[in-house]
Design goal:
Elements (H helix, E strand, L loop, with lengths): L3 E4 L2 E4 L4 E7 L9 E6 L6 E6 L5 E3 L7 E6 L4 E6 L8 E7 L9 E6 L1
Length: 113
């Protein structure tokens, strides 16, 4: 079954930046409407950013002005540019289509203070 594969996470100091990438594991899945989510230890998975098939975007209040979601239609890849990172951004980050498909493995983002 085609899944979404996330990459680009890592350990970064507070104030730093990372760019996460997302791509389907197979050619049959197109990233049209998609979103990034995150799940911190002991917390529920939450929506971070969304981009529609038309390119309109929406963000969680906690990341507005710091994160940017984008999509490369030619490459069929999605991205999440994260800047001014804070320790509270530490989480496992997932991408998914909207409506959601089975979840991938996610990519860990850890922000040190």
């Amino acid at each position: 079954q085609v899944q979404l594969v996330e990459s680009g996470g890592g350990l970064v100091q507070a104030g730093g930046s990372l760019r996460l990438s997302c791509a389907p594991s197979g050619r049959s899945l197109r990233l049209n409407s998609m979103a990034w989510y995150r799940q911190a230890p002991g917390k529920q998975r939450e929506l971070v950013a969304f981009i529609s098939i038309t390119g309109s975007t929406n963000y969680a209040d906690s990341v507005k002005g710091r994160f940017t979601i984008s999509r490369d239609n030619a490459e069929n890849r999605g991205y999440l540019r994260m800047s001014s990172l804070k320790p509270e951004d530490t989480a496992l980050y997932y991408c998914n289509t909207v409506p959601n498909r089975p979840w991938g493995q996610g990519t860990q983002v850890t922000v040190s203070s």
